[in-house]
Amino acid sequence: MRLLSLLIGALTLAGCTLSPTPNKWDFGTVWVGTTHTSNNITWTNTGSDPVDVLGVMTSFQAGDPFVVTPAAYQASTLGKNAACNPVRVVFSPVRAGTWSGKLEPLSNAGGKTVTAGSVSIAGAAYAQTSSGVLGIGGAAITPGNALDFGRERVGANPGKSLRIDIVNGSTATLTLTYRFLAGGGPGFAVDGTPATITAKPGRTTIKLRFAPTRLGKVWSAVEFIDQANGANIAGTALTGEGTE
After folding, report:
1. 41 and 135 Cβ atoms separated by less than 8 Å
2. Helix, coil or strand: residue 96
3. Whether the Cβ atoms of residue 188 and residue 158 lie closer than 8 Å to each other
4. For residue 100, what pLDDT is reported?
5. How far apart are CA 219 and CA 241, in angstroms?
6. Do the domain assignments include residue 195?
7. What DSSP character marks residue 53?
8. Are residues 137 and 197 located together in one domain of the fold?
9. What are the pLDDT digits (tens) for 113-140?
10. How far apart are alpha carbons 115 and 107 in whole angstroms?
C-alpha cells in the first residue's frame, strides 16, 4: 500500500497546473445596448512539466451576451512559468438581465494530469433606471428593453418622435435637467430642446425625437435629473437605425 501511495503521489506531482490571471471578471451593471471588453485573460503553467494550451472552453448558454475573442485561438506550448496567449470577453447585452459563466483552458500534457483554474465571468444590464422620487413610464416603454425608434432616414427633419412619461412620485413640482449619454448614438433629442423640464406631481409627458445623422444602428440613453436633488434620477436606453 505504501508503494502504491508513493506512485500515486509521483503521478500527481508530474501533472501540470494552469493558474488563471485574473480568476474572475465582473462587468458590473451596464446600460442595454453598450459594449464592454474585459482585460486580457491568461493561464500560466505553474507546474514543472510542459503543457499545450489548445483553446478556451466556456460554459455560456446560447443567447448569453458574452463572446470570447479572438475567435480563432492561437495554441501554444507552455514551459514552466510561461503564460498562454491571452483572450478577452466582450459583453454586449441587448436586453435587461443578469448572466454568468466560466472560462477554462483546453489543454494537453501528453496524458499527464492537468489541473486548470477557471475564470468566473459575470455581468448585468438595465434598460431603465429610477432612483429617489423619479421614474419612467408610458405606452412606448417596455420594461427591460430600450426605447426603440426603429428605422428612420438619415437627415430626416424633424425625424421620428415617441412619447414617454416622467413620473414624479413626490408632492412637489420638480425642475429637471437632462443629458444624453455618449454611445455612438447621435440624433436623439428632447422635442423643442428645452433647457429644463418642469415635472409636476404625477406624470409629465414629453416627446423624444430621433433624427439620425449617420447610417446604421445607433444607441444612447437619456437621464432626467432633479436640479435640487441629484439623487432623483430616471432614464431609459434608446436605440434606432439610420437608413438611406
Report:
1. no
2. coil
3. no
4. 98
5. 9
6. yes
7. E
8. yes
9. 899 999 999 999 999 999 999 999 999 9
10. 10
